[in-house]
Amino acid sequence: MLGKTAGGLYWMFRYLERAENTARLVDAGQRLALTRSGADGEWDSVLQTAAAYGSYSAKYDEVGRDDAIDWLLRDRENPSSVISTMEAARLNAKLVRTALTREVWESVNEAWLHLQDLLARRVSERDLPEVLSRIRQRTALVRGALHGTMLRNDIYDFARVGTFCERADSTARILDVKYYVLLPSASAVGSSLDNMQWDSILASNSAEGGFRMVFGQEPRPREIAQFLILDRRMPRSLAFCIGKIRDNLGYLAQDYDMRLPCHDMAEGLALQYLSREVDEIFDRGLHEFLQTFLVDLGALGRQVEIDFRFTE
Amino acid sequence: MAQTQTQTYDEMWGPLSQAQSMGGMEQSQSQGPRPPYAAYQRWYDGEDPARLKRKQREAEEIFRLTGITFNVYGQKEAAERLIPFDIVPRIIAGSEWQRLSRGIEQRVRAINAFLHDIYHRQEIVKAGRLPAEMIARNEAFLPQMIGVEPPGGIYTHIVGIDLVRTGDDEFYVLEDNARTPSGVSYMLENRETMLRMFPELFSRNKVKRVSNYPQNLHRSLAACAPQTCDGPPVVGVLTPGIYNSAYYEHAFLADKMGVELVEGSDLRVVNGKIAMRTTQGFRPVDVLYRRIDDDFIDPLNFRPDSALGVPGIFDVYRAGGITIANAPGTGIADDKAIYSYMPDIVEFYTGEKPLLNNVPTWRCSDPDSLRYVLDNLPDLVVKEVHGSGGYGMLIGPTATKKEIALFRKKLEAKPAGYIAQPTLSLSTCPIMTKAGLAPRHVDLRPFVLVSPQGVNITPGGLTRVALKKGSLVVNSSQGGGTKDTWVLEE
């Protein structure tokens, strides 16, 4: 396979995942803002989580609900907006057209055509839930086409590595922006304010249902961290994502019969961050844990690009 | 043939009077359609018009979702557009096709012999059949190709000759398209779409298949691999990238052939071979089906500012390390000034009379011809010698006085840049309109593959149709559409 093609697949699926995650963040933000008075600060943290705060501030003077949502969903000046990432996903899909089945290509192309219509003008509050669910449906259709029609070969592996690098990054950032509400030192443990924030963290990861199934009705911060960092059953947890990255890089090593620096880095990441107890993570500092994880994850992504010659 | 002709040849109904071809077709229907259309017409008469209109919309939806688009130059942000598709097939009888394909094969063989000759001994010039300055002062002539032996001796691996029909057995070549003809993906997708929408039509008509074109293309390209290639030849399609107007087609062909779609930045010279950057290191390539113009393939040997090509690829080519299809320098054969010599060229290399007609052509570089052309602009079609795609041409009979006056100035300023031809009365085929079937002008681009193993012509080709009533411009860049083209088994 061409290095360029591997890169196109990796980025196509990173962008698709990013579009979906951004939609999920907006959803969680909107829900929190609606159910709690004075939650305007919520949009600050949504923008921060989406790594869009800096660019937003360059355009707008203050953070407001409508502008924040517009910036995150449909502003082409924001490279991480849903419309920008969907466009980037489709351009990459075009680049790797020969590596995709017709179903996968058509699902991306349709998603892009559809979202272009959907996001042609500002989304009203009334239409927001519908628009957000459409975004998630469309990206889910691409994922479904990938699962149902693609060979399990190196093409698939690069698509998966891209997906899980992005997802791990997103989950870690969601946790990091709100790490303080999970700290035991937060005096208001169990207060309604914290409950809201905990719900929001879970909702941003589509994890409320799964969490209830495992831990019951009452969220406790330690359990939330445990669930989103270490639980291998939870498909958005760091442990799950890193496990998948390691597996798919492992298949590539087998296929190509060569072990590369990125393989060691993935092993190292799992060992260093995910083979410990949640108490230990809290003892050493959740914020620091997440920060260094994000740095090392970024380094792994760059190593994959080098090892498989995405670019010259 | 002349513009004053009052009859148009309709491929479904035969000769139509001007009034009929501009209006409806009802008058001629009493005598029945031409034989190749008989089964289609019986089917059509039994169809519900509302269902057909639905089908027309369905076809557009299929193309939109498949993403079969082309980018239009000169429009903002290189907008992606669909080429309109018409659901009425163009139908050619097997016997008609047989005669036509003999003419095509003859012409393609002559073109290859001509290219070899002008880049070697130039016998045709020595014999006085072609003036030396037609080559020496021609921008499309590539001096770097002099004395180069392309692998397998093939210059034009893929040709898409543009033909128009004017009568029962009368075909004219408009252009030879010996560089990088496009449109074959539409030929294939049009057929796929028709099979999906009207399976019953294919049970009633025995239509020759076109679907094996990608396999034939791959076989044909592989057969032209350089002699240094041991083992199965590695073929690649070289594209300028995703913003090129024909990118969809490049990806489509690479996909159907099961080969890599590469850009210049994926390639480099490694140990005297061209190699592509894969996830596992550089791997050699033997044959490149390139969809990049000559000027851009090698910044070291041609345009230094080209970012699309591969530095040094031409040196590898000259040393026999890679096959470039089509060979560099083939543009001289489809040059519009050379075109006027094609009857001589065909005769010179095949020893036979040309089977396909050439449109009489005035070369405006010649003072007498120029005078004639200037005197008769309203009746002529004037084209740029190096133009293509329907850009920069004048169609006298449909142009306004102002357009003609403007063009006259351009022509007087640079006469050698233009040729002129009489307006041909292109045949019509029915298309689906709101009011039912209506005739529109069409041309035909059959696709021809050439290898040391022989000449392979896919039965049919791409039919382009001018969707505007009375229009003679079929180019997709100018609002033309396409049709599925059927060649019937006898």
Automatic annotation (TrEMBL), chain A:
This is Uncharacterized conserved protein, Alpha-E superfamily. It comes from Wenxinia saemankumensis. Residues 1-306 form the DUF403 domain.
TrEMBL record, chain B:
Gene3D superfamilies: 3.30.1490.270, 3.40.50.11290. Residues 1-39 are annotated as: Disordered. Pfam families: CP_ATPgrasp_2. InterPro entries: ATP-dep_Glu-Cys_Ligase-2, CP_ATPgrasp_2, UCP005522. Residues 89-466 form the Circularly permuted ATP-grasp type domain. Residues 17-32 have a biased composition (Low complexity). PANTHER family: BLR5612 PROTEIN (PTHR34595), SLL1039 PROTEIN (PTHR34595:SF7). This is Uncharacterized conserved protein, circularly permuted ATPgrasp superfamily. It comes from Wenxinia saemankumensis. The lineage of its organism: Bacteria, Pseudomonadati, Pseudomonadota, Alphaproteobacteria, Rhodobacterales.
